[in-house]
Specification:
Residues 97-116 are annotated as: Disordered. Residues 97-109 have a biased composition (Low complexity). It comes from Campylobacter vulpis. One of its GO terms (cellular component) is plasma membrane. The relative contact order is 0.11. This protein is 50% helix and 0% strand. The protein has four helices and no strands. It has a domain at 16-26 and 38-75. The protein is mainly α and 116 residues long. α1 (2-22) packs antiparallel against α3.
């Protein structure tokens, strides 16, 4: 069932991409290559049909995504974080009692430090 929904998801995405590319935009887009569709879709052309078709396909995409999410979550009850096993016998390394301080920077003679 999940494989069928994943294949359907890819098909819906490809159909939406084609429908969006066929729509008219301010620069005509790829709709110019579809030929004369006014006689098939009516006087307004494919604009109204493609807009409604894209909207319906978008709703199908959202419904399919929700169904895929629900099926995935119901089939996998455990998360990856719950599968991690913690070893309780682990000990921390021994730290030295006193951390030695860093050596100080060497001092230059006064003659070099003074500017003229």
């Amino acid at each position: 069932m999940m494989t069928l929904l994943i294949v359907l998801q890819f098909v819906i995405v490809v159909v939406i991409c084609i429908a969006v590319l066929l729509q008219k935009s301010s620069s005509i887009g790829l709709g110019a290559y579809s030929g004369s569709n006014e006689s098939l879709f009516g006087a307004k052309g494919p604009a109204g049909f493609l807009a409604k078709f894209t909207f319906i396909m978008g709703l199908l995409l959202i419904a399919n995504t929700i169904a895929l999410g629900y099926l995935y979550n119901s089939s996998n009850k455990n998360s990856l974080a719950e599968k991690v096993q913690i070893d309780s016998n682990t000990t921390l390394p021994n730290l030295p009692a006193a951390i030695p301080s860093a050596p100080s920077a060497p001092q230059l003679p006064n003659e070099v430090n003074s500017s003229k």
